[in-house]
Design a protein that fits this description.
single chain, 2 domains, 9 helices, 179 residues, 49% helix, mainly alpha, 4 strands
Length: 179
C-alpha cells in the first residue's frame, strides 16, 4: 500500500511532491534511519519489491519540537529554519481565526497572558495551540474575558504539567491576568 513516503517517491510530476514529516523527533530511530535513505537517495527499499527510486525527488519538510535530538546524519541532509512563537498581533490574528466566536477582549487577554507564561520557568512553554484551547475552554464556561477565577479552573488548558500550574499559582493568578 502506497503510504505518503512511497507516494511521494512515486510521484511523477511535473512539480515535485511535497512530503511533510511532522514531529520527526517523536519517531523511533528505525524510522529515522529509513528516512535517511529517502533524503540521501530519493529512494525507498522494500524487501519484497526492491529499491524504488524517485524520478522527481520530493521536497521533504521535517518538523521537530526538540523532544529528542535528531541524529547528525539526518540533520546534515536538511536545511535548518527556526520558527519562533508568533508576535502578539499575529497570535491574536491566529486565535481569532480559529475561535471567531470569542470576544476580542478574551482573545487579546489570552494571547498576552500566554506570552507572559512563556517567560516563566515552565517545563513546557505554551504555544499557539494551547492559547486556542484556553480560549475555547473559557468560552465553554461562558466567559468573555479572563479573570483569576477563570484562569484557575482552566489552567490545565494551557499548562500541561502540575509543577507548571503550581508555579503560576504561587506567582499569583491575578498578577498573571493583570500582566
Amino acid at each position: 500500500m502506497a503510504r505518503p513516503i512511497l507516494a511521494a517517491i512515486q510521484h511523477e510530476g511535473p512539480m515535485p511532491a511535497v512530503l511533510l514529516i511532522d514531529e520527526v523527533d517523536r519517531a523511533d530511530e528505525e524510522f529515522e534511519a529509513f528516512l535517511l535513505q529517502v533524503l540521501a537517495e530519493s529512494a525507498v527499499t522494500i524487501p519484497e519489491l526492491g529499491t524504488i527510486r524517485a524520478t522527481q525527488p520530493p521536497i521533504v519538510i521535517l518538523t521537530s519540537n526538540r523532544t529528542r535530538d535528531l541524529h547528525d546524519a539526518l540533520k546534515r541532509r536538511c536545511l535548518y529554519h527556526w520558527i519562533d512563537y508568533p508576535d502578539l498581533p499575529q497570535a491574536i490574528s491566529i486565535v481569532r481565526m480559529r475561535v471567531p466566536e470569542a470576544s476580542a477582549v478574551l482573545v487579546e487577554q489570552i494571547a498576552a497572558t500566554v506570552q507572559r507564561l512563556r517567560v516563566l520557568d515552565v517545563q513546557k512553554p505554551p504555544g499557539i495551540a494551547e492559547a486556542i484551547d484556553w480560549v475555547r475552554s473559557l468560552r465553554l464556561l461562558g466567559l468573555d474575558s479572563l479573570d483569576a477565577a477563570g484562569a484557575d479552573v482552566t489552567l490545565g488548558s494551557v499548562l500541561k504539567y502540575r509543577e507548571d500550574q503550581e508555579l503560576v499559582r504561587r506567582e499569583g493568578l491575578q498578577q498573571l491576568v493583570d500582566g
